[in-house]
Structures are given as C-alpha cells and as structure tokens.
Amino acid sequence: MNIQDPKSRFPLSLYWFSLFLFFVSISLFMVVLGSIPPKDFPIQKIVSIEKGLTLSGVADILSRESVIRSAFLYKVYVRLLGGSVRSGGYVLTRPQSSLTIALRTSTGDQGLPKIKVTIPEGSTSYDIAWILQKKLPEFNAPLFVALAKPYEGYLFPETYYFDLNVKPADVVEKMISVFDQNTQVFQREISDGGRTFKDIIIMASIIEEEARIADDKSLVSSILWKRLESGMPLQVDAPFYYIFGKASSMLTRTDLTNDSPYNTYTNKGLPPAPISNPGLVSIQASINATTTKYLFFLSDSEGNMHYAANHDGHLANKDKYIR
Asked: Which residues, other chains included, contact 250 with Cβ-Cβ below 8 Å and sequence gap of 6+?
C-alpha cells in the first residue's frame, strides 16, 4: 500500500497563499477598525495633550476619552506618520477615524481657528500682552509679560497666526524663533563691525523709538554711536516711555534726573537692555549707520526730524521747531 506524503496533499504554494490571505484579512480588519469612530465619540469637546507625554500616554488619554477605538492601532498609525505627537488642545466637532486623529495629533492640527495678530515695530512686552489679550480673550497676559520680559528686544514684530487657546510660553518661543530667523543673516556683519549683538539690539530699540523712516533711522544711529564713542551721554527721551510710560512732551525735570539705569541723561553708555522690540529697518540702521557731520537731532510736533552739527545749531532748531 502506498502512503501519500502529507506535503503533497498541501502544496507549499497553497500554504503561502493562505498565509498571505491571513495577513491581508488582518490588515483589512485593522483598516476597517481604524476607519470607524467609537460609538460614544465625544462631540464639541476639547481633548488636551500635555507636553512631555509619551505616545503610549497620549494613546491612553484618547482611548479613555473614547476618541479612538484601539490604542494599539493609533500608535501604529502615528509611527507610520513619523512617530511624534504634538501637544495642545484638540477640538472635536464630529466623529473621526483613528487614522484621522493620528494625522491630526502628528501634525498639530488642533481644529482651532487661527487668529491674526499683528505686533508693530517698537512694541514692548507689555504692549504685546495687551494686543494678544485683545485678540485672544482667554490669553494669560500677566504670565506672558513675566515670560517675555527677559527677552525684551528679541521678540520679533511681525504678523502672526495663533490658535485661539495658544499659551504664553508658545508665543514667546515663536517670536524668539522668528527673531533668530530674521537676524541670523546679520551675525557675520555684526561680528566684523566690532560691536556685540546685544549692543546692536539695544541701540536698534532706541532708534526704533526715536525715528520713523529709514533715512532718519540711519542718521540717528550715526549720531548716537558717535556720542557713545566720544564719551557723551546719549541724552535720548525714548527710554523714559519704557521707565514711566511718558512721552517726551510729558517729561519733567525730576524725570530727567531719575536714577534709573535706563536714564541716558544721567548715565553714559547704552541702557542695560533693549527698551522695545525693534524691526528689521532699525536693526539694519544700528548695524550700518550713515556717516554724518551731525551730533544733535530733534523731532517736531509732526514727527519731522531736524539735525544740527553743534549745540548752538540744536538750540536754534529748538527755538524754531519746538518752542
């Protein structure tokens, strides 16, 4: 009696085909499972993902909140999309698949409207906080000031688009990042010029407040650097707005003798830190000052600048344009 080899009754090709069908079935099951939102998917809710959470931690939160059916499948999707999850508050307005949730959390698509916020050149951290609070009602302005104050001068004035629930720390980080991107091109030029980057930004913050247009900024820059090099006090009024919130026309003799280190009448040299957040034009003017014979300047009531080479000429301009 001939006994047939068992392998001949189950060809190897059929084995591999069966195995292939098995994995295809599993894959299809995973795709179907991942495409169907949970029955109790939360609607009109914000799910928060805090910074520092692991992928497993995020998956556990989403599973617990019934945002995803399978934590395992969510993690597979995220790893296929790059493996990282961005923190933030994610708005859930309608049921979504695990794949969609994985895509949103991987790209930071929080589903919030982007709010346009324009920060003008010369704004201080207090000014920026007020602008942000006006645009974003829930924004924590006091916390922003506390976080931003040490970076005064390095918060780039620009038009930004922030999430409605953006956190102060994220705004500070973003503004510093944009500042770095815009000023990186000047690093070599500043180094070659012999001045420190900090001094350039401090001077730029003063120029921003003292002059309006590019030509005047460059002339004012030349005058102020010349005063510094000659050992003369800067004698500019802009820092008083930073100290007291007062414009030039509001200053008293007592203000001018205040012992603040930002008082450029009683102290020689630059203030200890920037007095505002300057724009690119002022930074460029601080780096590349126009050569000029002038040593004095003033601004009339309409903002026009008037220059003089000596103190007598400056007094004459005062009589003509100020008094």
From this structure: none
